[in-house]
Amino acid sequence: MALYSLSRSNIAFEVIYDTTWITRIEYSSVSLLAPLFLLFMQDYFYGRAKFSKVLFAILILNVVIALTTLLEPFRYTMTSLRLWQISILPTLVYLLYFMSKAVYLRKKDAILLATSMFTVVFIAVYDVIDSIFFQSGIRFTQFAYFLFVVALTTILANRFISLYRQSEDLNIELSQQKLELARQKNAFFRFVPVQFLNVLGKNSAVEVNLGDSVLKEMSVLFTDIRSFTTISEQMTPEENFRFINDYLASMEPVVQRHEGFVDKFMGDGILALFSGDGEITRSHQTSADKAILAAIEMKKKVQTINAQAKDSHFRGLKIGIGINTGNLMLGTVGSRSRLDTTVIGDTVNVASRLESLTNLYRADILITKSTLSAMTIADNLAIREIDSVVVKGKTDPIIIYEIYEADEPLIRKLKDATLSLITRGIILYKVADFQEALINFEQALKIFPEDIVPILYRKRCQEYITSPPTGNWVGVQHLLEK
């Protein structure tokens, strides 16, 4: 339409001196108006929908007429124009059908476009009839086109505004979806820690499948509240939940500060994992170092809670912690409809047994020799060997050590004072020199009479002096209870 209008302006005569070419451009451009408009309507109303065969035929016919008008000898251009004038009638019929269908289907802006288009068509038909029969030389089509362009511009502007608003609405919706996705992701990581995925070698929760597992060397920390059953019996169910949640909420950040993560909350208990894998840590500490430091901070946290407790249930709160280091299987279990994470292996089982043994030895933190061997900070901590045992369900003995770094100052001072006596007594006990071992343990009890470790060994020595052990004695105690 721009070419058609330009060809009938004075500008065309200033630029193109050959008037025959101006006429060619006028005739060829006018022949393309209807098919190009149909293409525009097709895209506007139906997008990338497949062209109808009629529309395709109209397009081909008018393109051929336009090219012929440009390339044929000038004397034949009027013939081409007459051919187009004849072909425009079926084109207009199809255009009438096309727009009527759009109005019937209630396409947006169809009524306004149809009204403005049929006005142009009516005037264009009038101009065609005038050029054939009356030849007055007066053309109204370009004015009708101008009004149509104004209407079309208004429609397109409204469409642009509408699309802009839709875009804004979509952006808002997308932002809300992102926030919701972030909330869901955060909610997921409240059940499955991101560190668990990292250890599994997964970047996203959607990558996790049933049965995914990995063998890792890690340090396992078990802890729970001592005599919790007795404490819970004094509370209502609501108080129980509030008490447990307050306690767990104070312990979980301690694990995180030492680069571990909680795998399970088990009532009043916690199962935490610590890895020495450089990809998921920020320090050069071993997994054993991290677990030990977390345990010490947990013990100090409990001391602070006891000192500040206003609730009687928190006063005198005591915990037991067992730590073991070694290989374990970490992975997913469950069914297709519900997954859970878990860790399995002797390393986990022994850590759980150690936590149970804290009651027997009246110790807050117990570790195995494998954990002690994996530590790089052992020389800076208060540690003592307390026993060698075979726990129920196992055949291999484990050497148990107590970390008393976080004990009350007086208790720690007494344990330091008896450390050499107890260490010497255990060595003598293991070589079956029960008489000399008994002397060391009794001397230790004179310094610290309430220490359960020399009390246990004194009782054993007295029994073995009376009834010496048989077989290959290595000083290992077989425990019949978990």
TrEMBL record:
Q: Is Membrane tagged as a keyword?
A: yes
Q: Where are the transmembrane segments?
A: 27-47, 54-71, 83-99, 111-134, 140-161
Please list the residue ranges covered by the TPR repeats: 418-451
Q: What is the designated name of this protein? A: Adenylate/guanylate cyclase catalytic domain protein
* UniProt domain Guanylate cyclase: residue ranges: 219-355
Looking at the keywords, is Chloroplast present? no
InterPro entries tied to this protein: 7TMR_DISM_rcpt_extracell_dom1, A/G_cyclase, Adenylyl/Guanylyl_Cyclase_3/4, Nucleotide_cyclase, TPR-like_helical_dom_sf, TPR_rpt
GO biological process, alphabetically ordered: cAMP biosynthetic process; intracellular signal transduction
Top-rank taxon of the source lineage equals Bacteria
One annotated GO molecular function is: adenylate cyclase activity
Q: Which PROSITE patterns match?
A: GUANYLATE_CYCLASE_2, TPR
| Keywords recorded for this protein, A-Z | Membrane, TPR repeat, Transmembrane, Transmembrane helix
Query: Could you tell me which Pfam families the record lists for this protein?
Result: 7TMR-DISM_7TM, Guanylate_cyc
